[in-house]
Specification:
Elements lengths: L9 H10 L8 H10 L6 H9 L2 H11 L13 H8 L1 H14 L7 H26 L6 H8 L3 H10 L1 H8 L6 H9 L3 H11 L4 H8 L13 H14 L18 H5 L2 H20 L2
Length: 285
C-alpha cells in the first residue's frame, strides 16, 4: 500500500502542540484526578471529593467495587466506604479510568478510532500497574497513570488534524507509525504526549515513560518506569488486553529487561490478572 500523505503546515502544527492552547485532550474531571494521582502521596479526601462531584463516575466506581473483581461480601454503598475497604490506590485508578473515557470520543471515523484507542490505553494502564507491583519501580503508582495516558499524543493529533490523522493511523502498520509521523509532521505522538505531560506538571519519570513507550532496546533495569510502560504497551497489544492480538504484528520487544528477565509463569499470572480487570472495567457502563 502506498504511504499516505497529509498536507499540513508543520510550523503551525508544532506551535499548536508547543502551546497546547487550542486543544485539551482530557476533560476537567480527569485532569483533576490526574493532578492528584501524579503525587507520591495520594490524599483520600481529595479523591473522594472529586469522585463525589461526578455522579456518573461515582456510580461506575461503585459498580466495579461491588463486582466479583474484589470479592467483598457486603455491599459498598459510598465512595468513602470503598476507599476504606479497597484502598485509595484502587479507587483513584478506577475513577481515573472512567474519567478519561470521556476524552476518547469523536465523531464519524474518529469515534471508532478513539474508542479502540481507549480500550488499548486501559489495557496498557492495567498491565503497567501489575508489572510495577513486581518490579522495583521508585513510584509504582505512576505506572498505571503512565500506561493509561501513554497514547495521549494521538488524541491531540485527532483534535488538530481530524479524520486525516485517523486515516493515517489506521492505514499505517503499528511499528511504522512513529517514523511516518516524524516524516510528515516533524514530531510523533510520543513527543506530543510528553509535551502534554510537561504542561500538566507530571514528574520526570512519567513524562519520559509517555515519551518513550515504543522503546524497544531499553538498557535500563527492571525498575525503570520507561521499561514498565514499554513492556505493558507491547504485552497489552500482543496478548489481546484491550485489542485483538491478531491486529498487532510488531516484532517481539528486544532488550526490554522485564520481558527477558521475568519468570514466564509469573508474567502469565500478571497478564491474566490484567485481562480480568480489563474485562470488568471495559464492560461497566
Amino acid at each position: 500500500m502506498p504511504r499516505l500523505t497529509i498536507n499540513v503546515d508543520r510550523e503551525k502544527l508544532a506551535a499548536d502542540i508547543r502551546e497546547l492552547k487550542s486543544v485539551e485532550p482530557l476533560p476537567t474531571s480527569a485532569l483533576r484526578l490526574v493532578n492528584v494521582c501524579k503525587e507520591s502521596d495520594v490524599h483520600s479526601n481529595e479523591v473522594i471529593t472529586i469522585i463525589q462531584s461526578e455522579p456518573a463516575i461515582a456510580a461506575r466506581v461503585l459498580a466495579v467495587a461491588n463486582s466479583p473483581l474484589y470479592g467483598y461480601s457486603r455491599r459498598i454503598s459510598t465512595i468513602s466506604h470503598a476507599v476504606v475497604i479497597l484502598g485509595i490506590r484502587n479507587i483513584s485508578q478506577l475513577a481515573l479510568s472512567f474519567a478519561a473515557r470521556a476524552a476518547f470520543c469523536g465523531s464519524g471515523q474518529s469515534n471508532e478510532f478513539c474508542t479502540k484507542l481507549y480500550r488499548h490505553s486501559l489495557g496498557c494502564g492495567l498491565m503497567a500497574g501489575h508489572l510495577a507491583e513486581v518490579c522495583d519501580v521508585d513510584e509504582p503508582n505512576h505506572a498505571y497513570l503512565s500506561g493509561l495516558l501513554h497514547d495521549i499524543g494521538k488524541l491531540v493529533f485527532v483534535q488538530l488534524l481530524k479524520d486525516d490523522y485517523v486515516t493515517l493511523a489506521i492505514n499505517t502498520p503499528h511499528e511504522q507509525l512513529v517514523q511516518v509521523e516524524d516524516e510528515l509532521f516533524g514530531l510523533n505522538h510520543q513527543n506530543v504526549g510528553e509535551r502534554c505531560a510537561e504542561k500538566w506538571g507530571f514528574p520526570l519519570d512519567i513524562r519520559k515513560a509517555i515519551g518513550n513507550h515504543h522503546l524497544s532496546d531499553s538498557k535500563s533495569d527492571c525498575g525503570s518506569l520507561m521499561s514498565v510502560v514499554a513492556a505493558a504497551n507491547f504485552l497489552s497489544k500482543s496478548r489481546g488486553i484491550g485489542c485483538l492480538p491478531e491486529q498487532y504484528t510488531a516484532k517481539p520487544l528486544q532488550g526490554n529487561t522485564i520481558l527477558s528477565e521475568m519468570n514466564p509463569d509469573e508474567l502469565e499470572l500478571l497478564i491474566s490478572a490484567a485481562r480480568v480487570e480489563y474485562e470488568i472495567l471495559a464492560s461497566t457502563r
